[in-house]
Amino acid sequence: MATTHLTEDLAGPPPDLRFKRRIRFRSAMVELWRSRELVRTLAEREIRVRYKQTSLGISWAILTPLALMLVFSLFLQRVAKFDTNGTPYALFSFLGLIPWTFFSTSLSVGGQSLIVNNSLLNKVYCPREVFPLSSVTVAAFDSTISVLVLGILFAITRFAPAATSVWVPLLLLMQVAFTLGVTLVVSAALVYLRDLRQALPVLLQLGLFATPVAYGMQVIPAKLRSVYVTINPLGAVIDGYRRTVLLGMAPNWSLVAPAAATTALVFVVGYILFKRMETGFADVA
Question: I need a surface site. Which of 24, 93, 183, 274 has the fewest CB within 10 A?
Fold first, then answer.
């Protein structure tokens, strides 16, 4: 008899008594929409805290990509001589830095959003995804400022955006969806794996050079490009921005298609994983 009870304890509760987290996408979206004011409030608070006591204020939003652009222009371009198809390298690199900065800021800030807002997790009921979503909103605010600087660069270099820039909204949708999906996964994982908090900055630094930000897709062998953008959709997004805005060409659909498939998968799976793990956030964070 004792052996039977021990076996049952090791096997866990019966299947009919186990808790199953059911995710209803429509009701989750309705609940998230009702919490949109909380997302805005959290984003405003984060922006105020970040820039309130700094001398340069929101200028810091453009200093990071601008500094990287100068480093790329003064050192990497002179050594490697990357092919920009006749476009000014300052525009070429800055156009790649804007989506990358949006991605890296979303991950570095949004990844820790649940841990930083631990007190709110235990006191306020709301969809837990509002915290990483507010951080992505802050990154979008910074990117908007960087786009204004891009306009100044166009004026300085006397280079005009091409009419094919009409494809930018599609690429932007891919960029935001992929970033949000990865941020949801990372923010949930950081609650349970605190070592990832230390590894994240290193991974982002490696990602900067593994993504065609300072260089173009020409550096990657042609036969590997489809595989590459499947793993890293940001490569297809950045290449698409350059083709449509600078070169007057349509996006390379052979690269955009697999990148879009990965983006959709990351967004859906990322959201499902986040919702399945959110029941333990308040206890662990």
Answer: 24
